[in-house]
Amino acid sequence: MDRNSPIGVFDSGIGGLTVAREIMRQMPKERIIYFGDTARLPYGSKSQDTVLRYSRQIIRFLMTKEVKAIVIACNTASAYALETVERELDIPIIGVIRAGARTAVHSTRNGKIGVIGTEGTISSGIYTDVMRQMRPDIEVTVKACPLFVPLVEEGLLHDTVTDEIASRYLSVLKGRFIDTLVLGCTHYPLIRSTLGRIMGDEVTLVNPAYETAIELKALLEEKDLACQGAEEDGGNEKYQFYVSDLAEKFTAFATSILPNEVKETRKIHVEGY
Ligand code: DGL
Asked: Could you give the CA distance from residue 5 to residue 248 in angstroms, rounded to a whole number?
């Protein structure tokens, strides 16, 4: 495997860009192929079988780009598909859940952690399981927030509608005296300021993207796969973006949150993989 090959990163939509952004920041030499499954979003309300099938198709697409490693930048797909697909692949693949759980367990002072995510991630119980393996006495309160993903995809990042819905969702967590809240969906860091305001300063918000990038970096170094070349500029070919629908909308959004302008997003027929 060539160390200068790109890293594949995927999500159901734009949420995984929060992870891609962190990889770009922490590993500026690495090339990235990003895929957002915008035609089939949301994943959070779909069954495990469906999310696994989608994930396999995307991984087959990414393999055609000769990626050296894959990051499942989606909590739902990490919860439902990672364990299976990692047995099927001969390149390294990581999700976002373990990194997020580890950060939360290290950050809590009172042992009370909240987790918000899609219906799929929350009903899988995976965050609670992983955190209890790390520290059995941890108290976890979970809450599915299914309306956050469409609000983010619509760009309503700073909007009274988002404030109102977030207040309702988070009210259950506010009564549980949590001191740490895991943003267990890669879309949620995009509404972090709203969530932080509602939860208050005493609650630490954990964005698993940061730790996921650290984990990826360590993994690439361990496998001798870290890019050795000189750091290129953020040109279009260094970071390539693919979606299954609405490429222009994706391009505009990606440009608004990534450090460099995204000049082009290509639409592909992912069902063909
Ligand atoms: N961003 C995804 C996650 O982290 C999924 C959003 C969705 O498609 O429901 O779970």
From this structure: 26
- Pocket residue to mutate for ligand 1, from 185, 207, 257, most atoms within 8 A of Cβ: 185
Angle at which helices 192-199 and 160-174 cross, to 10°: 40
10 lines ligand 1 (CB under 6 A): no
**Whether the Cβ atoms of residue 215 and residue 98 lie closer than 8 Å to each other:** yes
| CATH dotted code for 97-207 | 3.40.50.1860
- Give tens-digit pLDDT for 45-101: 999 999 999 999 999 999 999 999 999 999 999 999 999 999 999 999 999 999 999
The full set of domain ranges for the chain reads 7-95+210-272, 97-207
SS3 (DSSP) at 36: strand
7-95+210-272: CATH topology is Rossmann fold (3.40.50)
| 197-220 confidence digits (pLDDT tens) | 999 999 999 999 999 999 999 999
Active site residues: 74, 185
Residues 6 or more apart in contact with residue 212 via CB below 8 angstroms: 19, 22, 71, 73, 94, 95, 96, 99, 100
pLDDT digits 0-9 by tens, 1-41? 789 999 999 999 999 999 999 999 999 999 999 999 999 99
How many other C-beta atoms are found inside a 10 Å radius of the C-beta of residue 66? 13
HSE at residue 198, side-chain half, CA atoms within 13 A, is 20
Whole-prediction pTM: 0.95
Say if residue 203 is exposed, middle or buried (CB neighbours under 10 Å; 0-12, 13-18, 19+).
buried
Q: Is 93 left (phi over 0), alpha (psi -120 to 50) or beta?
A: beta
The answer to whether the CB of 115 is under 6 A from ligand 1 is no
